[in-house]
Design brief:
Length: 235
């Protein structure tokens, strides 16, 4: 048996897990920066200035309490969620893992419900509203499924639905670079935030959700055991 036939899949898996962590930390960082910026803007927003950013800040400042109810738990969510994927923490500090999980569940409820409420008056009109309502409902459903499975000690299914929930939540972070691209090219395209916020939301949520589904499929125990058996058979 060629030793490379066994080490290569293991190395490939390690590289994929490293990429997963890079993407997770990057999106959490973007999400934390966006949440912190929005909280600052709520206090700093004023009627002066006619820039698109000032207009957006005024839009959210008009619903400051609801926006804070959405942004504060979102900030806590992106700060805590990486801990749920640290296997050493799950094994060595199970109580801490469960505690952070409960905090995240509470954040999830506040994030999802406030997002649905904010969808009633979106910046990007119907296109944005349909995206936030659809993925907001899927976010809450995934959280409920994750809670149900862990309550019934179905750990593998719990992790799948928790991963799905996180992927959907981090779709908001993915929309930020997309919106940045739209903002940067607005002088050439003539598009306003009201026109590109909807497409940006759909692009961000869909791309991160699909990436999450691909990761769930890759890490599913049955698929990995079959893949390992196939490698050994070939060797």
């Amino acid at each position: 048996m060629d030793s490379d036939s066994l080490t290569s899949p293991a190395l490939h898996g390690t590289i994929r897990y490293r990429r997963f962590w890079v993407v997770l930390i990057l999106l959490c960082t973007i999400g934390a920066a966006a949440a912190a910026r929005r909280l600052f803007a709520l206090d700093a927003a004023s009627s002066s200035g006619l820039s698109p950013f000032a207009t957006l800040d005024l839009h959210f400042a008009g619903r400051a309490e609801l926006t804070r109810l959405h942004v504060v738990p979102s900030l806590l969510f992106v700060l805590l969620v990486p801990l749920q994927f640290v296997s050493r923490l799950r094994q060595s500090r199970p109580r801490l893992h469960r505690w952070t999980g409960r905090v995240l569940l509470g954040c999830t409820l506040l994030i999802g419900l406030s997002a649905l409420r904010l969808s009633a008056s979106p910046v990007g009109g119907l296109a944005e509203s349909t995206a936030t309502v659809l993925f907001g409902c899927l976010f809450l459903f995934s959280a409920a499924k994750a809670w149900w499975h862990i309550k019934n000690r179905r750990v593998a299914l719990h992790r799948e639905w928790a991963t799905r929930m996180v992927a959907i939540a981090l779709g908001v972070a993915t929309t930020r670079p997309v919106m940045g691209l739209f903002f940067a090219t607005s002088r050439f395209t003539g598009l306003t935030p009201q026109e590109f916020f909807g497409p940006a939301m759909w692009i961000g949520f869909l791309s991160t959700w699909l990436a999450g589904e691909a990761w769930i499929s890759y890490t599913r125990p049955h698929r990995r055991s079959v893949s390992t058996s196939a490698v050994r058979t070939a060797g």
